[in-house]
Description:
By secondary structure, the chain is mostly helical. The protein has one domain (about 1-170, about 180-375): Growth Hormone, Chain: A. Helices cover about 80% and strands about 0% of the residues. The chain has 16 helices and no strands. The protein is globular and about 55 Å long. The mean pLDDT is about 85.
Amino acid sequence: xxxxxxxxxxxxxxxxxxxxxxxxxxxxxxxxxxxxxxxxxxxxxxxxxxxxxxxxxxxxxxxxxxxxxxxxxxxxxxxxxxxxxxxxxxxxxxxxxxxxxxxxxxxxxxxxxxxxxxxxxxxxxxxxxxxxxxxxxxxxxxxxxxxxxxxxxxxxxxxxxxxxxxxxxxxxxxxxxxxxxxxxxxxxxxxxxxxxxxxxxxxxxxxxxxxxxxxxxxxxxxxxxxxxxxxxxxxxxxxxxxxxxxxxxxxxxxxxxxxxxxxxxxxxxxxxxxxxxxxxxxxxxxxxxxxxxxxxxxxxxxxxxxxxxxxxxxxxxxxxxxxxxxxxxxxxxxxxxxxxxxxxxxxxxxxxxxxxxxxxxxxxxxxxxxxxxxx
Length: 375
């Protein structure tokens, strides 16, 4: 389940190191190519809101298999695109169908209550490694074969994982008996009723917003002076980020024992340190590498502990609660990407780092407020 989740979610992030390759192929601007990242986040957000609640109404295995099959088709189609508009459209569909991972996540959380944080951390590690290795993979394949083959090879991987899920994934019973509008209404009502869900969602939005802003504009930063790196070199930063992702299960386990707020306060502190390093030493690749590592340790630790807290709510509501949280989470990612692209055009790296610092300070304020109110 962890490997399949990683293969699916990686498709949202393949575009980040190869934006310049796509822009060159279609002879478009950096900002037009950058819209691919934003539309990917929007597509994922739409899938989260309109599709993942169905995990509480239908057999989760059937839903996952269906989404994976549609993802395979969309990935195959993008190989044959002839305009940037077609890439924009298919990027939305690819992200829309990649939400199968958000059906797998609550399914895993419901398998055990004692080791919920650890189990969620294990799946989340697969997700994070998929996200971060996507950059290494896409950069290398783009330089070797061209950016289109990134998606064609991914289609093959999705096809294989779909077959394995069909064979090994257990069936699960649904818990909601109402119709689809009632299901969506029930999901929205959780946001109104659960104050702590709203609190977690705001933190998640800000965290993922600064994370996406960083990874999208990092491609532009490293493509220009003084670095002038190729797509494959930029993608190698994903290896550094994978090291941060591997800490996620440990953080989930620590949150089970010592409390999530303490872990997340440490995580946002690392994020602030990383931004400071990359702001003052922005022309040093060593500083960028160190900052990337610390940023990912902080971001992934914050997210995995947030997710573990999320699944402490009523198990019968997991898919609907996950829908609200993750829809807002990826809305934050889309907004962060858009703001990052705009700030890059207006003021370059300094403006982007300033935005990320502001987001981090707001998260720190929310966590301090949480510690006082909920501890």
